[in-house]
Amino acid sequence: MDLLSDPKFFQEKMEVIGEMCGYCSRQVFHKAFKKEMGITPNHFRTIQKATVRQEKRQGQF
Asked: In the CATH hierarchy, which top-level class contains the domain 2-59?
């Protein structure tokens, strides 16, 4: 979750994120993440990107 929430890693492929977390394949990472969080890693990252954008907008005023 930390890597998927970090803007530095927003452009990384899901395979890379999974490997950084110790998973041997994207599919295994996807399945484990969804089981634990209830949403896919891609959906989680999309939510995090939107949150970061919203925080940036609020910080500009």
From this structure: mainly alpha
3-state helix, strand, coil in the chain (%, to 5): 75, 0, 25
The residue behind tokens 């395979």 is 15
Q: What is the pLDDT of residues 4-51, one digit of tens each?
A: 999 999 999 999 999 999 999 999 999 999 999 999 999 999 999 999
Q: Who contacts 22 (Cβ-Cβ below 8 Å, separation ≥6)? A: none
User: Is the CB of residue 16 less than 8 Å from the CB of residue 6?
Assistant: no
Identify the helix (H) or strand (E) that includes residue 37: helix 26-37
